[in-house]
Each structure stands twice: as structure tokens, then as C-alpha cells.
Amino acid sequence: MATIHLTNPDGSIYGIMTVLDVYQYKLFMFKVHPYLGPIKLKSDCNEASRMGRKFYKVYDEWNKLTPEEKRKTQINE
């Protein structure tokens, strides 16, 4: 998860945004919510209405990768 601090020119913080990391692995783009699990994304980064068995099979494969291998599939660093 990435946290972004929005600051004024004087350095004071006026907002904080937290966004989930987005990954792309074997033609699927997805984010992983800490409570809801994987969420498949469309090419415009909106959530897909359906996920399906193929997506879950690829996600299970991705989930077995090491943390370093997973980081290499992250697209929103």
C-alpha cells in the first residue's frame, strides 16, 4: 500500500491518500485488498465486474511468488 501526503507550499500537510498497490501478471491487472483479497482491474484501472476461474488460477500462481518477485510485477511504484 502506498501513502501519499498532500502538502501546502509551506510544508504543512492538508491531506493523506492511501492507495493499494497495482500489479500486472500474465495479462491480468489487479490489486490486493487486505480484507477483500484480489480485485481484478480492467485496462482503465476500474474494477472488473467478473473475475472468473482463469483469474483466480493466475492469482494463486502469483501469490506463491517471493516478495521480491511480486515487487517486480508492481506497476504503480
Description:
There is one protein chain. With 77 residues, the protein is α+β, with helices and mostly antiparallel strands. The protein has one domain (22-77). It is 23% helix and 36% strand. It has two helices and five strands, in the order E-E-E-E-E-H-H. The chain has helices spanning 52-63, 67-72, and strands at residues 2-7, 13-19, 22-25, 28-33, 37-41. The strands form two sheets. Strands 3-4-5 form a three-stranded antiparallel β-sheet, with helices on one face. A two-stranded antiparallel sheet has the order 1-2. The longest helix has 12 residues, at 52-63.
Largest sheet: number of strands, sense, barrel closure: 3 strands, antiparallel
Strand order of the largest sheet: 3-4-5
Count every beta strand, where a strand is a DSSP E run of 2 or more residues: 5
Low-confidence stretches: none
The count of helical stretches stands at: 2
Give the DSSP E fraction (strand runs of 2 or more residues).
35-45%
Report the end-to-end length measured between terminal Cα atoms: 10 Å
The rounded Rg comes to 15 Å
The tally of domains stands at: 1
Order of helices and strands: EEEEEHH
Helix content: 10-25%
Overall geometry: elongated
Mean pLDDT: 91
What structural class is derived from the secondary structure elements?
alpha+beta
